[in-house]
Amino acid sequence: MVAVDRWGAELSEGRAVVVALHGRGQDRATFRAVVDVLPLDGTAVLAPHIDGDTWYPEPFTADLERNEPALGEALAAVDAAVQEVLDAGVPLERVVLLGFSQGACLALQSFLTAPRRFGAVVALTGGHVGPPGTAPAPPDGVAGVPVLLATHAGDTWVPLWRVQESADLLTAAGAAVTLLVEPGSEHVVTPLAASAVATVLDALPTG
Q1: Could you tell me which residue ranges the Phospholipase/carboxylesterase/thioesterase domain spans (predicted)?
Q2: pTM
Q3: Cβ atoms within 10 A of the Cβ of 43, count?
C-alpha cells in the first residue's frame, strides 16, 4: 500500500510542486531528512511512501521481470501522485519529479516509459531500471525538459556507467540534461547537488 506524505506549501500556492520518491529502506523520517537538505522553500512536496520502505525487491540492474509486479505498482503510484497534482490545477510545467537512490531510479523509469513534459526531473544518485545492455526506447515529446542527474563516481549502489547511460539516452531524446558527477563514493545528497537542484527550481516558470 502507498500513502502520500505532504508538507510545505499548498499545492495551488507553491512556486512548484515536487513529487519526491524515497530510496530503498528509507522510512518517512529518514527520507524527510534527505529532502530537508534541498532548497525547497516555497514549494509543495508530495512524497508517496510504499509499505516496507522499498519500491521493488531486487537491484535496479536486475532483469525487469525479477522486480515485477512491484515495479509496475511503483510506477502506478508515481502516476497517481502526478495526477493528484494535475487535478489540483497545477500545470505540468510547474511539477518536478524528484527521487533519491531507488527513488531516483523510479523517477527516471517513469519519465522514460511514460514521458511527460515536467518542469524538471531530478535523479539524485540513480539510473533507469533494467539489466546491462538494455534500455527503454528514447521517449518522445521531452525535448527541452530539464533533467538533472547527480551522483558520485565511486558510488557502489548506483554504478556510474548506468547514470551515464541514462544521461545519454535522455540527451538523445532532446532533454536538457545536466550530469553532475562528484568524486568519492558517498551515497548522499551533497551541498553541490543541492545547489544544482536550486538552479533547476529557479528556472521553472512562474505564475
Answers
A1: 55-191
A2: 0.96
A3: 21
Across 39-86, where does the E strand assignment appear? 44-50
CB 96 within 8 A of CB 120: yes
Mean pLDDT in order along the chain per 10 residues (207 residues): 92 93 95 93 96 96 97 98 96 97 98 96 97 88 97 96 96 97 94 96 85
What's the rounded Cα separation, in Å, for the pair 66 and 19? Answer: 26
pLDDT at site 207: 60
207 within domain boundaries: no
What CATH number has the domain bearing residue 121? 3.40.50.1820
Residue 198 covered by a domain: yes
Q: Encode burial over 172-186: b for 16+ CB neighbours within 10 A, e otherwise.
A: ebebebbbbeeeeee
Rounded to whole angstroms, the Cα distance separating 87 from 159 reads 37
